[in-house]
Design goal:
Elements (H helix, E strand, L loop, with lengths): L7 H10 L12 E6 L7 H9 L4 E4 L8 E5 L2 E5 L12 E4 L4 E2 L1 H14 L10 E4 L3 E2 L2 H16 L4 H11 L8 H15 L3 E2 L1 H10 L5 E4 L24 H7 L6 E9 L2 E3 L12 H9 L12 E3 L1 E2 H11 L3 E5 L9 E10 L2 E3 L6 H6 L1 E8 L16 H14 L3 E5 L7 E3 L2
Parallel strand pairs: 1-10, 1-11, 2-5, 2-10, 5-7, 6-8, 7-9, 11-15, 14-16, 15-19
Antiparallel strand pairs: 3-4, 12-13, 16-17, 16-18, 19-20
Helix pairs in contact: 1-7
Length: 420
């Protein structure tokens, strides 16, 4: 820092305010990884891959209700609040203002992963937390649990559920105020060095020396509070707009937007699911894909890939490329169906319905593609995939008009085939 107290970022800011040439340069771009379905698409694997070459990895929204699993050197790490890119010892991990932080959960998660392998050594020195991020307490989580139980028990009666929630004001909720405050004070000294002004941190990162910045989305497009399948959604914007509001940065700094798509579709909990296979096909997808929630432990509902849903996610996010994960789970199917259109009263509708009652009534139009009946888990290039597996990938690209950049054929880092 110079005697005048200026930094490269401050100098750039001065130039911009003075109308100089720097005002025409947006600065570094961020690459964004977003879920394109109802979550659980394997975002952690894509982030892990990109984080090997990143300088900063950011979380912009969500809380510890999100779950990412990453396998490195046969060690399986589970992340809920920490950006999964923190496994790279050269990465600075940043938790933005859009994230809600449960402090006991943050430290428990770190300590649990430290015991698993070397990936998290020195994590406290590599984590920065925005001073505008909100803290969530135990009683918030308990209230969420009560709300979720009421929602499950009274699905469809939205007005009554809401009215009863406000009338009852959670009578079963018990809060040990002094005990919780005492526990939180214990985290204060450890937390202080990590907390910074998040907006200024991002500004310096964007307008300082060239840096590779990665944003790790939590949840997914169809769980977005505004664009998801309401009311069965999360409480944040997990589409691309949440990157700007959750980190405090302008849209001109958004670069590549990677949509992560599972080769079939899954969903946790209740809510409309047009391509769901509540039959032996769904059971086979569930068992082969080990479709159990990382955070909830609940079995995921399973069904065929839904391109109507993905087109909708693309309308909102503008994906520049896709990562197609868990293609190997389809190895045993003699034929594979893909949902390509929705019909209502024998008419194809061009949009994804916002109304849950309408979505529950749609009839899915499928294209049937031949399976490959071959174990593809050892494939490391596109050419090593069976022709029918290649055709499945190309069909998705053609229908959506988005290139597939990665194909996942297994759990490990080495199981991600890169096409370009």
């Amino acid at each position: 820092m110079s005697e005048s107290g200026s930094t490269p970022a401050a100098a750039a800011a001065a130039t911009i305010l003075n109308g100089g040439a720097a005002s025409r340069h947006p600065g570094n771009k961020v690459a964004v990884v977003l879920g394109a379905q109802w979550g659980d698409e394997g975002k952690g694997k894509v982030v892990d891959l990109l984080a090997q070459d990143a300088d900063i990895v950011c979380r912009c929204q969500g809380g510890n209700n999100a779950g990412h699993t990453v396998v490195v050197d046969s060690v399986e790490y589970d992340f809920h609040l920490l950006p999964s890119g923190i496994i790279n010892p050269k990465v600075t991990a940043f938790i933005g203002n859009g994230v809600v932080i449960h402090l006991p959960g943050l430290f428990e998660e770190a300590e649990k992963n430290v015991k698993k392998g070397k990936g998290l050594e020195g994590w406290e020195k590599r984590l920065i937390i925005s001073d505008r991020a909100h803290i969530v307490f135990d009683f918030h989580q308990a209230a969420d649990g009560i709300q979720e139980q009421q929602r499950q028990e009274q699905a469809g009666k939205k007005f009554k559920v809401l009215a009863n929630q406000y009338k009852s004001v959670y009578p079963t909720l018990e809060i040990d105020i002094e005990g919780e405050l005492k526990r939180l004070k214990g985290y204060t000294e450890r937390l202080k060095p990590m907390v910074r002004d998040g907006v200024y941190f991002m500004y310096e990162a964007l307008h300082g020396p060239p840096k590779k910045i990665l944003v790790e989305g939590a949840n997914a497009a169809l769980l977005d509070i505004d664009f998801g399948t309401y009311p069965f959604v999360t409480s944040s914007n997990c589409t691309v707009g949440g990157v700007c509001t959750g980190l405090g940065m302008p849209p001109q700094n958004v670069g590549e937007v990677y949509g992560v798509v599972k080769a079939y579709t899954t969903r946790v909990g209740i809510g409309a699911f047009p391509t769901e296979q509540d039959n032996k096909i769904g059971e086979l997808l569930q068992t082969r894909g080990k479709e159990v929630g990382v955070t909830t432990g609940r079995k995921r509902r399973c069904g065929w890939l839904d391109l109507v849903l993905l087109r909708y996610a693309h309308m909102i996010n503008g994906f520049t490329a896709l990562a197609l994960t868990k293609l190997d789970i389809l190895d045993v199917f003699p034929e594979i169906k893909v949902g390509v259109a929705y019909r209502i009263n024998d008419k194809i509708i061009p949009h994804f319905p916002a109304n849950q009652e309408v979505l529950n009534k749609v009839e899915v139009q499928y294209e049937t593609l031949p399976g490959w009946n071959t174990d593809i888990s050892n494939a490391r290039t596109f050419d090593e995939l069976p022709v029918n597996a290649q055709n499945y990938v190309r069909f998705i690209e053609m229908e959506l008009g988005i290139p597939v950049k990665w194909i996942g054929v297994g759990k490990s880092r080495e199981s991600m085939i890169q096409l370009f």
